[in-house]
Amino acid sequence: MARELLTGRVETSWIDYNGHMNVAYYHMAFDRATDRFLESIGLGETYLRNENGSMFALEDHITYQRELRAGEDFRITLQLLDLDEKRLHYFLRLYRAEGGELAATCEHLSTYVDMATRRSAPMPSGARDKLEALLAEHGNLGRPDEAGRPIRIRRA
């Protein structure tokens, strides 16, 4: 089962002139969920302060499935798709809490960075062990349909 990371409510200030949640706030919600995930594997802000290493985003791909409006509750889950010694590839889903409809997805690729050199480096073994276990747990979930999709205009 994908790991639930974050629950929240769409704030009135997040609404754009179309009357729904602005794209910037979808990204912010996914970013907050990512912070929770990194803390859970020992690579969050505390790790940065103590060990001088951090995860940096390399690429995001967000899809918007359904509108969210002011006052609606949501939840975000994470599925780990792959990893190597330096990088993480994972998939976040944002659901409308009432009814469970998928509202948006975010495919994310990040790399571990040694902050002393500001260069990519191997992740610490403790975090890597947790990630390997999570990857094994998520191995039976199947690849999300939206993962790896190119951006393009489909022609008949």
Explain how this protein is built.
By secondary structure, the chain is of the alpha+beta class. The chain has one domain: Thiol Ester Dehydrase, Chain A. The protein has 3 helices and 6 strands; from the N terminus they run βααβββββα. The chain has helices at 23-40, 45-51, 125-138; strands at residues 3-9, 53-64, 73-83, 87-96, 102-114, 119-120. Strands 1, 2, 3, 4, 5 and 6 form a 6-stranded antiparallel β-sheet that branches. The termini are far apart.
What is shown here, in short?
This protein is of the alpha+beta class and 156 residues long. The chain has three helices and six strands. A hairpin with a 4-residue loop joins strand 5 (102-114) and strand 6 (119-120).
Largest sheet: 6 strands, antiparallel
In angstroms, what is the radius of gyration? 16 Å
Named CATH architecture = Roll
CATH topology: Thiol Ester Dehydrase, Chain A
Mean pLDDT across all amino acids: 95
Number of strands: 6
Helix share bin: 25-40%
**Global outline:** globular
> If helices are DSSP runs of H or I spanning 4 or more residues, what is the number of helices?
3
Order of helices and strands: EHHEEEEEH
Q: Give the N-terminus to C-terminus distance in angstroms.
A: 37 Å
Q: In the CATH hierarchy, what is the class?
A: Alpha Beta
What structural category characterises the helix and strand content? alpha+beta
Q: For the record, what is the CATH homologous superfamily label?
A: Hotdog Thioesterase
Sequence stretches where pLDDT stays below 50 over 5 or more residues: none
